[in-house]
Amino acid sequence: MQRQEQADTLKILQKSLSKELFVISEKVKTGIPLSTSDGILLFEKGELGFLGILADVVRKRKNGDKAWFIRNFHIEPTNICVNRCNFCSFSHHFSASKWELSVDEILAKVDSQDESVREIHITGAVHPKRDIVYYGELIKKIKARRPKLHVKAYSAVELDYMIKKAGLDFITGLQYLKDCGLDSVPGGGAEIFDETIREKICGMKTCSADWLAIHRAAHILGLPSNATMLYGHLETFSHRVDHLERLRQLQNETGGFNAFIPLKFHRYNNEMKDVLEVPVIEDMRMYAISRVYLDNFPHMKAYWPALGRKMAQVSLSFGVDDMDGTINDSTRIYSLAGAEEQSPVMTVSGMKQLIEEAGRIPVERDSYYRPVL
Ligand code: V47
What is the mean pLDDT, run by run of 10 residues, along the chain of 373 residues? Predict the structure, then answer.
């Protein structure tokens, strides 16, 4: 939709809105950040079509008609974990098998990647026997083979464990990893920041304050990062807004976040199998409200292995401008939890087609959102 058409649609729609929603739509139009009560109201009363138009305003302002993707791959070194999170189907506590890749096996996976692949995403369980030197050396070995490969590695939960185990503070620990070749930090482990719900779904893992402190430290050191939210389990709308608000505040302080990635809870093979998954309508409402609320985040990412490629395509009309990447088939966090994508792999032409069918312009990017020419 062109900018003028979009403005006209919003104008027509505004005539049918309640006063409260009209005020919110005016704020979005003029670029005024929403309050937490605005956010809650959108979750309670915002209809899907209305939310899609609001999200489109923000998406278009930030990214025009571009939809980004990257050639990347994931490595999950182990599923042996000191934590026991009730929503997790991946760790050895719930999965049928335990695995731990050796350094040579990890390097063989690196070697098997085509030269055009630009980014490696490493994340997994928190292994009790591994330490910061092991993880630093692993990055060094990867960089020695592929110096230009961008290493996005270790969620805040893994970092928290290895840095505290080494007796370091977050800045010193991250500086050590940066010196080994760490380029950026993925967004995992945020789950839900509200302390009561966090206690219920993942009481053993890194607390919310430390998750935020690790990302703050990364940003101070010039390491960009992403942020996630696990939604659709025990949390209320106000917990979602609280999570978005804490992220928006940190982003105001540091400007170091690249993308926000909502992660839909999947219920299979974990302790929370009795919690029904939210309908796809709720997924799109979640994406749209996040886009509008996090007006200081440059990008909204649909992680298609978790959402499914069809809904990822639809999400491009609900605030998303980034389709993550080609991935390859090594990520098991979602397939084990029952996601429809059991073997996530996408070709570049498949990715482009998905984006073009949604009326957007596919742009291959590097890890800093620079177009690859
Ligand atoms: O933190 C685990 C989630 C996350 C389940 O930064 C689950 O670019 C749903 O953070 N149902 C890890 N979700 C993955 C992650 C990520 C993924 C893609 C890109 C980026 C990035 C980061 O996976 C965990 C947790 O929130 N998760 N189990 C489950 N049953």
Answer: 73 82 95 98 96 97 97 92 92 78 96 93 94 98 97 98 98 98 98 98 97 98 98 98 98 98 93 94 98 98 92 97 83 68 80 96 97 91
Q: Is 87 close to ligand 1, i.e. is its CB under 6 Å away?
A: yes
Residue 305 has what pLDDT? 87
Q: What is the CA(289)–ligand 1 centre distance, in A?
A: 19
Cα→Cα distances 56→72, 153, 342, 355, Å: 27, 31, 30, 15
Question: Is residue 370 one of the residues assigned to a domain?
Answer: no
Residue-level pLDDT at 326 = 87
Is the CB of 180 inside a 6 Å radius of any atom of ligand 1?
no
Q: Is 270 in the pocket of ligand 1 (CB under 6 A)?
A: yes
Q: If you take atom 4 of ligand 1, which residue's CA is the nearest one?
A: 188
Q: Can you say how many angstroms the Cα of residue 99 is from the centroid of all Cα atoms in its chain? A: 24
Choose one of 230, 320, 327 to mutate for the ligand 1 pocket test, by most ligand atoms within 8 angstroms of C-beta. Answer: 230
In a domain? residue 369: no
Consecutive H or E run containing 228 = strand 225-231
Ligand 1 centroid to Cα of residue 144, in Å, is 28
Q: Domain range holding 50?
A: 2-62
The whole-model pTM stands at 0.95
Indicate the number of domains in the chain.
Answer: 2
**Distance from residue 361's CA to the centre of ligand 1 (Å):** 27
Domain contains 80: yes
Smallest CA-to-CA distance from 363 within 66, 17, 41 is with 66
What span, in angstroms and rounded, lies between the C-alpha atoms of 58 and 206? 32
